[in-house]
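Blinded run. Sample ID left blank on purpose so nobody reads anything into the name before looking at the predicted structure. Input follows.
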Amino acid sequence: MLIQILFYGFSLVLVAAALGVIAARNPVHSVLSLVLCFVTSAAIWLLFEAEFLAVVLVLVYVGAVMVLFLFVVMMLNVDFEQLRGGFTRYAWLGWITAAVVIVEIVGVVTAKRLGVDVSRGAAPLPADYSNTEALGHVLYTEYVYAFELAGMLLLVAIVAAITLTMRRRVGLKVQNVSRQVSVKPGDRVRLVKMPAEKRQ
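Blinded prediction complete.
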């Protein structure tokens, strides 16, 4: 009973935070609402006894990806008025997506009436089973290339965010790498000969 109460409570918080992501007018507030979504999703994963997924969701997404998004939004100096002006242009796509999600949720809730047997739960796992070990085995054997590719994409995203920020900043001093590499010692140090002077 307590698990069901916690599940519905976390679900309400998750839905409210998801609405805050798309309804907030400030992009920083949207990112913070998305952080709340991830933390609440991690709590729901804990209720399902998927501790590793919950920890990864908090450490990777909240601790790394969302912080990166937050810094990108804050550094790019986005024109909020321009974004608000084009919000209604894509409203039809948002309504279609919302309708599809509602149909899917209604289909899952009424699946029992449609003849789908939803009374059986997941098969119980042995006491010595470790989902961390199972996920690690699959991740670093079958999906190791996808894992490395995701890391490279995150690296490229960080470099692109820094590049966009530095390119638009006013009064930025840019270094010329080729000029620094091709410099000669004579260009850096100049020896000047002058006669010695006697102190009066």
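Unblinding after everyone has recorded impressions. Residues 2-78+87-115+129-167 form a domain with the Four Helix Bundle (Hemerythrin (Met), subunit A) fold (CATH 1.20.120.1200).
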